[in-house]
Amino acid sequence: MVWRQAQGALIGRSGELGRLAGVLDAAALGQPGVAVIGGDAGIGKTRLVNELVSRARAQGFAVLTGQCAELGDAMPYLPLADALRGAADDPVLAQAVEARPILRRLVPGSWADLGPEAGPGLTQQQLFGSTLSFLAEVSQTAPVLFVLEDLHWADRSTRDLLVFLSRMLQHERICVAGTYRTDDLHRRHPLRPLLAELNRLPLVTAVELGPLGSGEMADYLVSLGGADAQVIGGIIERAEGNPFYAEELLAAEGLPYNLANLLLARVERLSDAAQRVLRAAAVAGRRIDHDMLQKVSGLDGPVLEEALREIVSRGLLLPDGEYGYAFRHALLREAVYNDLLPGERTRLHGEFTRLEGSAAELAYHYLASHDLPGALAASVEAGRRAERLGAPVEAHGHYDQALALWPRVPDAESVAGIDRVRLALLSAAAADESGDPHRAVTQIRELLATERPTAEIWERLAYYLIDSDAVLASIDAAKTAVHLATEQVSLPALPATAGPPSPSPSDSAEAAAPGTAGTSPSGPAGPRPASAVGALAGLVGAGCAVDGHSTEAIVAGAAGPGGRVLARAFATYARALLWSSRHEEVHELAALALEAARAAGVRDAESSGLISLAMVADIQGDGERAEELLALASGIRSGDLSIDLRAIFHHARVQYEHGKLAAAAVTVDHGVRLAHETGLSWSPYGTDLRFLRLLIHYVAGEWEEAGALAAGFAVRVGKLPEAYLSGFALFVEVARGDAIVDERLSWLKPFWDDLLVASIVRSLAAEHALWNGDPRLALDHVDAITEVLEPFDPILIRICATGLWALAELGESGPRADDLLRRAHVAATTGPGGVSVSAMGAEGTAWLARAEAEWHRGRGTAGPAMWRAVAEAFDFGFVYEVARSRWRLAESLLAAGDRTEALEVWEQALSTATTLGAAPLARVLTELGRRARFATTPASPPSEKTAPSLTTREQEVLALVAEGLSNREIAERLFIAHKTASVHVSNILAKLGVSSRTQAAAYAHHEGLPS
Predict the structure, then answer these.
(1) Which ranges of 511-660 does DSSP label H, i.e. alpha helix?
(2) What value does the mean pLDDT of the chain take?
(3) What is the pTM of this model?
(4) d(CA 578, CA 612)
(5) How far is Cα of residue 133 from the mean position of the Cα atoms in its chain?
(6) How far are the Cα atoms of 26, 66, 172, 407 from residue 145, in angstroms, in the given order?
(7) What is the structure's pLDDT at 720?
(8) pLDDT in the model for residue 419
């Protein structure tokens, strides 16, 4: 019987198609969605998706389709590469791909060099970000349907990409649809947890196809040409609602076979040549090119073409693209492959090893053909290729496979082109990049047990132990690395030498320092800042010695062979000690690591050394020194983008924390641009830079921009990184009293066991409770945070101030208030390990002043002078907090009987609250004005069309604001009182109709006011 495709409408799936069409229609309107379609093999998933694709094309969608293959985790991103290959014929899609080098790498036949800055983990973040931006860009022209078929065969990186897209889509016109076999999902199948995770997301619609009913099956068989009612009835009874099984039974004319035998019965009716071709195709996979078939089958052109025509006419293979063929169903390919004789299968796989193909495919064919040397070489190359594609899980798998083959291959090092130690280091690095540092630690320890220990191996062990939160063990390992490194470079010892440390690290559950990345292989060095030498003079003491060697000897040794390992050993040692109880040792070690890195020319270690030194300076309260060092670090192109972004983030953070908002904005914008240009907006430091940008907008009073960023931070979060971003959105949303706050808090509640999320979210939840008249709930949040944070954590100062606000509202003072104020002072004056902090940044100082004022308010002793000091402390540019402080200042002035100044301060605060859209603050200020019988309508800001008229003195003050000076610095420059300078700035903001110093500075630069 010649195969006949079903004609006409889709039968028996109108309900399922309706649900999918709903997701598609919503996506067209800017409500993205993800559909996962499950069902047994042959149940009709592909037919349903094909109908969805037809509808999408009719509605003007751009359609991308990708197919997973039965190669496990061997070929990363195979369905994405498949989809991008199909995009080449569409000019809009092709142009969007061409603009993204990381995606061009996936397109068959092309290769884009990303330079030396992308390790596998970082490259994966680039690829995920580029895929999202690619789909978003295309969706601006036409809505997009992205189909991923056979997800039960998807590699780990593809599964992670699907989760990423499902979580990150916000308002794009994108619909993602994936299919999977339910009967393939055994208990430990890796797709099971992914489906469970996806089904919790609001964007995801799950559709599972069940068997067709008897009437639907009858209609389907008639559409295939069935005419005998008795035959149709028998088929319906045996097929159990499975359309593909029914179709094969009809083709076999009802013969009593199981499905595999049914499929093979159709194959056996083919000519010998056609069967030969079909068996070769089965070894290739579900898809195969025409030229490849000809080479493997050994048939001449005309004979091959005739055989293919016969196969296609019977519906076993279908044309796929211009030059290839695909099995009509994966079950058919499996049946043919499983029917091959062992020797036949081995021979055919061997034939494929002689053809061109990806390294992963070749490794698969070499293994199946029992060619172990070929499998070893191909596995190593496949691992390297997976690294370059940003697939660390797959890279680790290939490297692990090569390590398993190593003892079975004679002269393995020559065959692999790499020694075993280097291969094991690559495998461990890939494991760490994929988020499994414990596996990396295990591999390095196995290496130490079987190979000669070296400084490099011990340094890598220390690095991965830090990532595994085993800080004490990492210190021991790093010390061993330093000892071996100094021995390897043959340094002259001091007269009294120290013995080598014990190389037996023990695990610890201590937490590693957040935000302290390690080093990685260096890329090309950029120009060193000219001020570097002067800025770092005297960092290392002249008498400093490590492991019995002088500073001078270590730096000299770093310039010779082994210097790179020596520099990294010192850098990792400093990193391990940074947040330990031996914190005081970090300065000398980090400085030594920096000098060794410079001597060895290792730019990534140099940048990391500068960052470590800056963090020590910042912890010790030397903000100026920290900023100076971070400016040097952020000016280095280290060859590792993660380190470069880390340096820029910390530079902007320190500037922000010390009240230099304009400078911080410039720095963070540079970092955001770099992250965007390199596809790293969703990398850890890419997201850190974006939330810092939101904070700068928020503090500077640029709430329209802050709100736009906050709106892009997902509300319905499911993973910790998303929760971090979502928590920062609460700063502006709580202050504006947005309706979304309660929903965002409910989604963030499951993440309160994470310290960073809890410290941000519960602090803002406390403020939200206070604005809504519930100080008891606010105190519950405050107590929960203060009990778990380290006493030196500076965020405690703001949290304690909020708790004291709540106690003052309740009229409670005494031990509880005293304890909160004590905690605030401890956090302000001590650092990790109990080190004394000599000075804080501008914001920390202001919050401490707020805490003290709230403590006095609870006792009824907070006079105007105290609240005026709080307002002045926040007047480094924190527009909203100045207004909040003026609210309390106006209250205290009224209590003191000074209605004139109270009215002036009240008007300033209400004007700011109204301009910002700070509804809760405006509400309490309006109520205060009503009780005080003030006018309740603030003066309207001047129209943007009217040129503001500034006095000569105001123009002078504005020019100094544009230079970034604080009110105190302006007062000193113009020989006027600090309060007078503050009044001038407030008047300038009102006249210009702006809400922040940053906006006023922008006006000054635009108008060209002289400085």
Answers:
(1) 532-535, 551-558, 563-577, 586-600, 603-619, 623-634, 641-657
(2) 84
(3) 0.70
(4) 8
(5) 14
(6) 12, 11, 11, 48
(7) 81
(8) 95
